Amino acid sequence: MNMSQIPHLPPKTCNIQTHKRLQRLPLLLFVAFLSFLAGISGGLASITWISPPAGPASRFTPVSRTIGDATVEMPNPLLENEMKQQMIGLFDTRKKIGSAWYKTDGRIADAVLLTDNGWAVAALPAYKAGDELSWEGVDFRGNTFSVEEVKKENIFGLVFLRFSGNQFVPVSFSDVDNMHAGSIFWAVAKQEWTLVDVSSRVSLESPSGFLVWKPHYEFVVSSTASEGQILFTLSGEFAGFVGSDGHIIPATFIPGEIQSVLTTGTFLYEALPYAGLLVEGFSAEDAKDWLFGFLVTGGVLPKSSPIQKNDLIIGIEGKPIDPLLLHYQVLRAPKTMTLTILRGKEEIDVMVSKVLVEP
To answer: Computed from CA positions of residues 154, 158, 160, 163, in that sequence, does the dihedral angle turn out positive or negative?
Structure first.
């Protein structure tokens, strides 16, 4: 009798070939699992090479948004949100309708937050004492804040004001080197964002010279900018305000001014009290070095001063005079500093100290 026909044996469930395949199944599954892991690893490697690095470098990239048929340049949403937190709108309560609405001419200005306890600054050259009695601040979430203190400085007509509340998000300041012809900034007002470029540099130097601690030039932005707009770099740092006729009010002085207000309650400026002219030429008749210098022609020069009229300042703290950033070099120098001067044909180093100066 054929064994396959023996009645007491169970029915045949598979043949030998199928049985061998089943025996190899765990091994095949293991190989497939390893292939899956390899695929994931390859994918992660691709992400590492293709994706931009995480962190500030990627979140500060401008993008485009389409509104209707027009494409409007806007910052990265994360950067935009951060900058909105650093600004606060200043409104006239006399133009308020109900509890949360204002007439379209109710916005006075946009201010930039400087400290976490509510100090801010706005470009308000027409401000006069008492105006603040009808002011209130409104942030981008609609929260309102009363104005508790106001101080006006006399260099650029900026108004420093303190809002009620705390835990505000202050701005970071742009490096002064970011301001030059061709620079591009976000000009922001009324939560509207415009890309503007620095079109030119205008000299402020008069025939009689200028004070060494004040800017002797102004930058001008393109015609698309409006007076009072806040200027941010493309990476979200505060660079200044748009003033009249497109002239930029730089943020250069603001850190020192707010520090003075916080420590003394007023604006005190420590600087060198010299007036003069920016010049350039050879350091001596037989020298080959072309230098910039500040020729002292006046200012506060008592007989005891180590600097006298017709001295030529060619260096501050061991660094050459920067013809564009001279005032900034003076502001950033320590209270007692070393000046390198040419007196006649002699190059000497002298120690000088800053004094309180009037704006």
So the answer is: positive
Architecture per CATH, 270-357: Roll (2.30)
**Is domain 73-163 given the CATH code 2.40.10.10 in the classification?**
yes
- Cβ partners under 8 Å of residue 56, min gap 6: 235
Provide the residue ranges of all domains of the chain, joining segments of one domain with +.
73-163, 176-266, 270-357
pLDDT category at 39 given cuts 50, 70, 90 is: low
Rounded to two decimals, the pTM is 0.74
Do 176-266 and 73-163 have the same topology in CATH?
yes
- Is the per-residue pLDDT at 247 higher than 80? yes
Instruction: Round to whole Å and give the CA distance between 84 and 92.
Output: 20
Count CB neighbours of 187 within 10 A.
22
- CATH T-level fold of 176-266: Thrombin, subunit H (2.40.10)
SS3 state of residue 342: strand
Which residue from 241, 240, 238, 236 is spatially nearest to 226, judged by alpha carbons? 241
Tokens matching residue 205: 């130097």
Cα separations in angstroms, 74 against 83, 108, 198, 294:
12, 24, 18, 42
- Residue 168: what pLDDT? 94
**Do residues 286 and 313 lie in contact, with contact meaning Cβ atoms separated by under 8 Å?**
no
Query: In the prediction, which pLDDT does 303 show?
Result: 80
List the one residue out of 87, 154, 151 whose CA is nearest residue 114.
87
Sign of CA dihedral 101, 130, 238, 202: positive
> Which are the contacts of 52, defined by CB distance < 8 A and separation ≥ 6?
58, 61
Q: Which residues contact 317 (CB under 8 A, 6 or more apart)?
A: 329, 333, 334, 337, 338
Sequence-ordered list of residues with C-beta below 8 angstroms from that of 1, at least 6 positions apart, any chain? none
Residue keyed to tokens 């497939």:
32
